[in-house]
Protein backbone atom coordinates (compact mmCIF):
# COMPACT_ATOMS: atom_id res chain seq x y z
CA UNK A 1 0.00 0.00 0.00
CA UNK A 2 2.90 2.39 0.69
CA UNK A 3 4.11 2.12 -2.91
CA UNK A 4 0.57 2.53 -4.24
CA UNK A 5 0.12 5.71 -2.20
CA UNK A 6 3.54 6.96 -3.31
CA UNK A 7 2.74 6.44 -7.01
CA UNK A 8 -0.74 7.94 -6.65
CA UNK A 9 0.23 10.96 -4.58
CA UNK A 10 3.13 11.83 -6.89
CA UNK A 11 1.07 11.24 -10.04
CA UNK A 12 3.66 8.81 -11.41
CA UNK A 13 3.38 7.03 -14.73
CA UNK A 14 4.17 3.40 -13.90
CA UNK A 15 4.67 0.99 -16.78
CA UNK A 16 5.22 -2.72 -16.29
CA UNK A 17 6.93 -5.76 -17.76
CA UNK A 18 5.60 -9.26 -17.09
CA UNK A 19 6.46 -11.24 -20.24
CA UNK A 20 9.65 -13.24 -20.69
CA UNK A 21 11.80 -13.11 -23.83
CA UNK A 22 12.55 -16.67 -24.93
CA UNK A 23 15.01 -18.02 -27.44
CA UNK A 24 13.18 -21.38 -27.48
CA UNK A 25 9.41 -21.12 -26.93
CA UNK A 26 9.12 -24.89 -26.52
CA UNK A 27 11.09 -24.75 -23.27
CA UNK A 28 10.28 -23.41 -19.82
CA UNK A 29 11.86 -20.33 -18.29
CA UNK A 30 14.59 -22.29 -16.50
CA UNK A 31 15.36 -24.44 -19.56
CA UNK A 32 16.57 -21.64 -21.82
CA UNK A 33 20.14 -22.10 -23.02
CA UNK A 34 21.13 -18.69 -21.64
CA UNK A 35 20.10 -18.64 -17.99
CA UNK A 36 20.71 -14.88 -17.86
CA UNK A 37 18.24 -14.20 -20.70
CA UNK A 38 15.21 -13.75 -18.43
CA UNK A 39 15.27 -11.27 -15.56
CA UNK A 40 16.19 -13.06 -12.34
CA UNK A 41 17.52 -12.37 -8.87
CA UNK A 42 21.24 -12.99 -9.19
CA UNK A 43 22.32 -11.67 -5.81
CA UNK A 44 20.96 -10.27 -2.56
CA UNK A 45 22.38 -8.46 0.41
CA UNK A 46 21.25 -6.53 3.44
CA UNK A 47 20.08 -3.53 1.40
CA UNK A 48 18.19 -5.37 -1.33
CA UNK A 49 18.38 -7.60 -4.40
CA UNK A 50 20.28 -7.47 -7.69
CA UNK A 51 18.52 -8.29 -10.97
CA UNK A 52 20.05 -9.47 -14.22
CA UNK A 53 18.33 -10.38 -17.48
CA UNK A 54 15.51 -9.02 -19.62
CA UNK A 55 11.73 -8.56 -19.63
CA UNK A 56 9.12 -7.22 -22.05
CA UNK A 57 6.82 -5.56 -23.29
CA UNK A 58 7.47 -2.20 -21.68
CA UNK A 59 4.72 -0.17 -23.32
CA UNK A 60 5.53 3.55 -23.14
CA UNK A 61 8.64 2.73 -21.09
CA UNK A 62 10.54 5.53 -22.82
CA UNK A 63 8.29 8.14 -21.18
CA UNK A 64 7.45 6.36 -17.89
CA UNK A 65 8.53 7.43 -14.41
CA UNK A 66 8.63 4.01 -12.78
CA UNK A 67 8.75 0.34 -13.76
CA UNK A 68 6.95 -2.59 -12.14
CA UNK A 69 8.62 -5.90 -13.00
CA UNK A 70 7.06 -9.26 -12.24
CA UNK A 71 5.95 -12.49 -13.93
CA UNK A 72 2.54 -13.20 -15.39
CA UNK A 73 3.07 -16.82 -16.45
CA UNK A 74 3.09 -19.57 -13.77
CA UNK A 75 6.49 -20.70 -12.53
CA UNK A 76 7.35 -24.13 -11.17
CA UNK A 77 9.53 -25.24 -8.23
CA UNK A 78 13.17 -24.65 -9.03
CA UNK A 79 12.42 -21.34 -10.78
CA UNK A 80 12.39 -19.24 -7.63
CA UNK A 81 15.09 -16.90 -8.95
CA UNK A 82 12.54 -15.64 -11.50
CA UNK A 83 9.70 -15.38 -8.96
CA UNK A 84 9.77 -11.80 -7.78
CA UNK A 85 7.89 -8.52 -8.02
CA UNK A 86 9.64 -5.20 -7.63
CA UNK A 87 9.40 -1.55 -8.63
CA UNK A 88 12.08 0.97 -9.48
CA UNK A 89 12.54 4.38 -11.13
CA UNK A 90 13.24 4.21 -14.86
CA UNK A 91 16.44 6.15 -14.14
CA UNK A 92 17.83 3.34 -11.95
CA UNK A 93 21.48 2.55 -12.72
CA UNK A 94 21.84 -0.48 -14.97
CA UNK A 95 18.26 -0.36 -16.28
CA UNK A 96 18.41 -0.17 -20.07
CA UNK A 97 15.65 0.28 -22.65
CA UNK A 98 15.67 -1.21 -26.14
CA UNK A 99 12.54 0.25 -27.78
CA UNK A 100 11.12 -0.80 -31.09
CA UNK A 101 11.07 1.60 -34.04
CA UNK A 102 9.05 4.74 -33.34
CA UNK A 103 6.14 5.04 -35.75
CA UNK A 104 5.57 8.61 -34.61
CA UNK A 105 9.12 9.57 -35.62
CA UNK A 106 8.51 8.37 -39.18
CA UNK A 107 5.05 9.95 -39.49
CA UNK A 108 5.01 12.59 -42.24
CA UNK A 109 2.22 14.79 -40.88
CA UNK A 110 -1.08 14.60 -39.03
CA UNK A 111 -2.94 14.62 -42.36
CA UNK A 112 -0.86 11.74 -43.73
CA UNK A 113 -0.57 9.77 -40.47
CA UNK A 114 -3.42 10.96 -38.22
CA UNK A 115 -3.02 8.15 -35.67
CA UNK A 116 0.66 7.23 -35.64
CA UNK A 117 1.66 10.90 -35.45
CA UNK A 118 -0.07 11.24 -32.06
CA UNK A 119 -0.94 7.86 -30.53
CA UNK A 120 2.12 5.62 -30.85
CA UNK A 121 2.73 4.18 -27.38
CA UNK A 122 5.99 2.42 -28.29
CA UNK A 123 7.06 -0.86 -26.71
CA UNK A 124 10.42 -1.95 -25.38
CA UNK A 125 12.54 -4.76 -24.06
CA UNK A 126 13.93 -3.85 -20.65
CA UNK A 127 17.43 -5.07 -19.80
CA UNK A 128 18.50 -5.31 -16.17
CA UNK A 129 22.29 -5.06 -15.97
CA UNK A 130 23.04 -5.69 -12.28
CA UNK A 131 20.14 -3.49 -11.23
CA UNK A 132 19.97 -3.07 -7.47
CA UNK A 133 16.53 -2.80 -5.84
CA UNK A 134 16.11 -1.94 -2.14
CA UNK A 135 14.01 -4.29 -0.02
CA UNK A 136 11.22 -1.74 0.42
CA UNK A 137 10.69 -1.91 -3.38
CA UNK A 138 10.55 -5.74 -3.43
CA UNK A 139 6.98 -7.05 -3.08
CA UNK A 140 7.46 -10.75 -3.86
CA UNK A 141 10.73 -12.52 -3.18
CA UNK A 142 11.58 -15.93 -4.67
CA UNK A 143 8.10 -17.34 -4.11
CA UNK A 144 6.51 -19.01 -7.14
CA UNK A 145 3.13 -19.48 -5.44
CA UNK A 146 2.76 -15.85 -4.33
CA UNK A 147 3.98 -14.71 -7.75
CA UNK A 148 1.08 -16.65 -9.28
CA UNK A 149 -1.43 -15.67 -6.59
CA UNK A 150 -0.80 -11.93 -6.98
CA UNK A 151 -2.83 -12.16 -10.19
CA UNK A 152 -4.90 -15.33 -9.84
CA UNK A 153 -6.08 -14.92 -6.24
CA UNK A 154 -6.69 -11.16 -6.24
CA UNK A 155 -8.73 -8.87 -8.52
CA UNK A 156 -5.50 -7.62 -10.14
CA UNK A 157 -5.86 -9.69 -13.31
CA UNK A 158 -9.55 -8.80 -13.50
CA UNK A 159 -8.93 -5.05 -13.30
CA UNK A 160 -6.08 -5.24 -15.80
CA UNK A 161 -8.19 -7.03 -18.38
CA UNK A 162 -11.46 -5.20 -17.64
CA UNK A 163 -9.94 -1.92 -18.79
CA UNK A 164 -8.37 -3.76 -21.73
CA UNK A 165 -11.79 -4.94 -22.91
CA UNK A 166 -13.17 -1.40 -22.63
CA UNK A 167 -10.25 -0.29 -24.80
CA UNK A 168 -11.07 -3.10 -27.23
CA UNK A 169 -14.73 -2.09 -27.35
CA UNK A 170 -13.86 1.54 -28.19
CA UNK A 171 -11.38 0.47 -30.89
CA UNK A 172 -13.96 -1.88 -32.41
CA UNK A 173 -16.49 0.96 -32.51
CA UNK A 174 -13.94 3.13 -34.27
CA UNK A 175 -13.13 0.47 -36.87
CA UNK A 176 -16.84 -0.18 -37.41
CA UNK A 177 -17.30 3.54 -38.04
CA UNK A 178 -14.43 3.45 -40.54
CA UNK A 179 -16.01 0.47 -42.31
CA UNK A 180 -19.33 2.29 -42.66
CA UNK A 181 -17.70 5.54 -43.85
CA UNK A 182 -15.59 3.65 -46.41
CA UNK A 183 -18.67 1.89 -47.79
CA UNK A 184 -20.51 5.20 -48.07
CA UNK A 185 -17.56 6.98 -49.68
CA UNK A 186 -17.10 4.18 -52.22
CA UNK A 187 -20.84 4.19 -52.99
CA UNK A 188 -21.31 0.52 -52.08
CA UNK A 189 -23.28 0.70 -48.83
CA UNK A 190 -26.55 -0.24 -50.59
CA UNK A 191 -25.13 -3.45 -52.06
CA UNK A 192 -26.76 -6.31 -50.11
CA UNK A 193 -23.49 -8.18 -49.57
CA UNK A 194 -21.82 -5.05 -48.22
CA UNK A 195 -24.79 -4.27 -45.97
CA UNK A 196 -24.62 -7.85 -44.71
CA UNK A 197 -20.92 -7.48 -43.91
CA UNK A 198 -21.57 -4.25 -42.01
CA UNK A 199 -24.42 -5.92 -40.16
CA UNK A 200 -22.16 -8.78 -39.12
CA UNK A 201 -19.46 -6.39 -37.91
CA UNK A 202 -22.07 -4.34 -36.06
CA UNK A 203 -23.34 -7.50 -34.35
CA UNK A 204 -19.83 -8.44 -33.22
CA UNK A 205 -19.22 -4.93 -31.89
CA UNK A 206 -22.57 -4.90 -30.10
CA UNK A 207 -21.81 -8.31 -28.60
CA UNK A 208 -18.62 -7.00 -26.98
CA UNK A 209 -20.49 -3.91 -25.77
CA UNK A 210 -23.21 -6.12 -24.29
CA UNK A 211 -20.73 -8.41 -22.56
CA UNK A 212 -18.96 -5.44 -20.97
CA UNK A 213 -22.30 -4.15 -19.68
CA UNK A 214 -23.04 -7.68 -18.47
CA UNK A 215 -19.75 -8.02 -16.58
CA UNK A 216 -20.51 -4.69 -14.90
CA UNK A 217 -24.09 -5.63 -14.04
CA UNK A 218 -23.02 -9.04 -12.75
CA UNK A 219 -20.03 -7.87 -10.72
CA UNK A 220 -19.49 -8.38 -6.99
CA UNK A 221 -18.10 -6.39 -4.08
CA UNK A 222 -14.55 -7.11 -2.95
CA UNK A 223 -14.21 -5.23 0.32
CA UNK A 224 -14.67 -1.56 -0.56
CA UNK A 225 -14.08 -2.28 -4.26
CA UNK A 226 -16.24 -3.57 -7.11
CA UNK A 227 -15.05 -6.39 -9.34
CA UNK A 228 -16.65 -7.17 -12.75
CA UNK A 229 -18.09 -10.60 -13.48
CA UNK A 230 -15.13 -12.94 -13.95
CA UNK A 231 -16.90 -15.43 -16.23
CA UNK A 232 -18.05 -12.80 -18.71
CA UNK A 233 -14.69 -11.03 -18.67
CA UNK A 234 -12.79 -14.12 -19.73
CA UNK A 235 -15.47 -15.03 -22.26
CA UNK A 236 -15.13 -11.55 -23.79
CA UNK A 237 -11.38 -12.04 -24.14
CA UNK A 238 -11.92 -15.14 -26.28
CA UNK A 239 -14.40 -13.44 -28.60
CA UNK A 240 -12.80 -9.99 -28.93
CA UNK A 241 -9.47 -11.64 -29.70
CA UNK A 242 -11.15 -13.07 -32.81
CA UNK A 243 -13.35 -10.09 -33.67
CA UNK A 244 -10.61 -7.46 -33.87
CA UNK A 245 -8.58 -9.04 -36.71
CA UNK A 246 -11.85 -9.80 -38.50
CA UNK A 247 -12.76 -6.13 -38.36
CA UNK A 248 -9.33 -5.17 -39.67
CA UNK A 249 -9.72 -7.62 -42.56
CA UNK A 250 -13.15 -6.29 -43.52
CA UNK A 251 -12.05 -2.64 -43.37
CA UNK A 252 -9.28 -3.51 -45.80
CA UNK A 253 -11.69 -5.53 -47.94
CA UNK A 254 -14.20 -2.69 -48.14
CA UNK A 255 -11.47 -0.15 -48.90
CA UNK A 256 -9.90 -2.16 -51.71
CA UNK A 257 -7.27 -0.41 -53.82
CA UNK A 258 -8.55 2.97 -52.65
CA UNK A 259 -6.73 2.34 -49.38
CA UNK A 260 -3.31 2.46 -51.00
CA UNK A 261 -3.83 4.65 -54.08
CA UNK A 262 -3.54 7.86 -52.12
CA UNK A 263 -1.31 10.84 -52.92
CA UNK A 264 1.98 10.38 -51.05
CA UNK A 265 1.84 13.57 -49.01
CA UNK A 266 -0.38 16.44 -47.96
CA UNK A 267 2.17 18.65 -49.72
CA UNK A 268 0.74 17.45 -53.05
CA UNK A 269 -2.36 19.55 -52.40
CA UNK A 270 -0.12 22.63 -52.38
CA UNK A 271 1.05 22.10 -55.95
CA UNK A 272 -1.59 23.25 -58.49
CA UNK A 273 -0.68 20.55 -61.02
CA UNK A 274 -0.76 17.62 -58.61
CA UNK A 275 -3.77 19.07 -56.79
CA UNK A 276 -5.65 19.13 -60.09
CA UNK A 277 -4.70 15.50 -60.72
CA UNK A 278 -5.86 14.53 -57.19
CA UNK A 279 -9.23 16.22 -57.75
CA UNK A 280 -9.70 14.27 -60.99
CA UNK A 281 -8.74 10.83 -59.63
CA UNK A 282 -9.99 10.90 -56.02
CA UNK A 283 -13.68 11.27 -56.66
CA UNK A 284 -16.58 9.90 -54.60
CA UNK A 285 -20.37 10.04 -54.93
CA UNK A 286 -20.66 11.57 -51.44
CA UNK A 287 -17.33 13.21 -50.57
CA UNK A 288 -15.01 15.86 -51.94
CA UNK A 289 -11.60 14.57 -53.15
CA UNK A 290 -9.79 16.09 -50.16
CA UNK A 291 -12.20 14.41 -47.73
CA UNK A 292 -11.88 11.06 -49.50
CA UNK A 293 -8.09 11.22 -49.26
CA UNK A 294 -8.37 12.24 -45.62
CA UNK A 295 -10.64 9.28 -44.80
CA UNK A 296 -8.54 6.68 -46.57
CA UNK A 297 -5.29 7.92 -45.09
CA UNK A 298 -6.94 7.56 -41.67
CA UNK A 299 -8.14 4.07 -42.56
CA UNK A 300 -4.69 3.02 -43.78
CA UNK A 301 -3.05 4.31 -40.62
CA UNK A 302 -5.59 2.35 -38.58
CA UNK A 303 -5.23 -1.04 -40.31
CA UNK A 304 -2.43 -1.05 -42.89
CA UNK A 305 0.49 1.04 -41.67
CA UNK A 306 3.15 -0.17 -39.24
CA UNK A 307 1.14 1.53 -36.52
CA UNK A 308 -2.07 -0.24 -37.58
CA UNK A 309 -0.36 -3.62 -37.91
CA UNK A 310 1.06 -3.23 -34.41
CA UNK A 311 -2.46 -2.52 -33.09
CA UNK A 312 -3.78 -5.75 -34.62
CA UNK A 313 -0.88 -7.85 -33.34
CA UNK A 314 -1.20 -6.25 -29.90
CA UNK A 315 -4.92 -6.97 -29.57
CA UNK A 316 -4.54 -10.53 -30.86
CA UNK A 317 -2.06 -11.41 -28.13
CA UNK A 318 -2.51 -8.86 -25.33
CA UNK A 319 -4.49 -11.36 -23.23
CA UNK A 320 -2.26 -14.28 -24.22
CA UNK A 321 -2.47 -16.80 -27.05
CA UNK A 322 -5.89 -18.29 -27.93
CA UNK A 323 -5.14 -21.42 -25.91
CA UNK A 324 -4.50 -19.20 -22.87
CA UNK A 325 -7.70 -17.16 -23.14
CA UNK A 326 -9.81 -20.25 -23.86
CA UNK A 327 -8.20 -21.97 -20.90
CA UNK A 328 -9.18 -19.07 -18.63
CA UNK A 329 -12.74 -19.23 -19.93
CA UNK A 330 -12.83 -22.97 -19.23
CA UNK A 331 -11.46 -22.54 -15.71
CA UNK A 332 -13.76 -19.67 -14.73
CA UNK A 333 -17.07 -20.86 -16.15
CA UNK A 334 -19.54 -22.15 -13.56
CA UNK A 335 -20.01 -25.54 -15.15
CA UNK A 336 -22.48 -26.73 -12.50
CA UNK A 337 -25.08 -24.24 -13.77
CA UNK A 338 -25.24 -26.10 -17.09
CA UNK A 339 -24.46 -29.68 -16.07
CA UNK A 340 -27.11 -29.51 -13.31
CA UNK A 341 -29.73 -28.85 -15.99
CA UNK A 342 -28.65 -31.99 -17.84
CA UNK A 343 -28.47 -34.06 -14.65
CA UNK A 344 -31.89 -32.84 -13.56
CA UNK A 345 -33.46 -33.96 -16.78
CA UNK A 346 -31.63 -37.30 -16.77
CA UNK A 347 -32.81 -37.98 -13.22
CA UNK A 348 -36.42 -37.27 -14.12
CA UNK A 349 -36.84 -40.56 -15.98
CA UNK A 350 -35.44 -44.08 -16.09
CA UNK A 351 -35.98 -47.44 -17.72
CA UNK A 352 -39.67 -48.29 -17.89
CA UNK A 353 -40.97 -50.75 -15.27
UniProtKB/TrEMBL annotation:
UniProt feature coiled coil, ranges: none
Residue spans crossing the bilayer: none
Gene Ontology molecular function, alphabetical: oxidoreductase activity, acting on the CH-CH group of donors
InterPro entries from the UniProt entry: Acyl-CoA_Oxase/DH_mid-dom_sf (IPR046373), AcylCo_DH-like_C (IPR036250), AcylCoA_DH/oxidase_NM_dom_sf (IPR009100), HpaB/PvcC/4-BUDH (IPR004925), HpaB/PvcC/4-BUDH_C (IPR024719), HpaB/PvcC/4-BUDH_N (IPR024674)
Gene3D superfamilies, per database record: Butyryl-CoA Dehydrogenase, subunit A, domain 2, Butyryl-CoA Dehydrogenase, subunit A, domain 3
Limits of the HpaB/PvcC/4-BUDH C-terminal domain: 147-346
Domain HpaB/PvcC/4-BUDH N-terminal: 2-140
Keyword Oxidoreductase: yes
UniProt keywords, alphabetically: FAD, Flavoprotein, Oxidoreductase
Signal peptide range in chain numbering: none
Name assigned to this protein: 4-hydroxyphenylacetate 3-monooxygenase
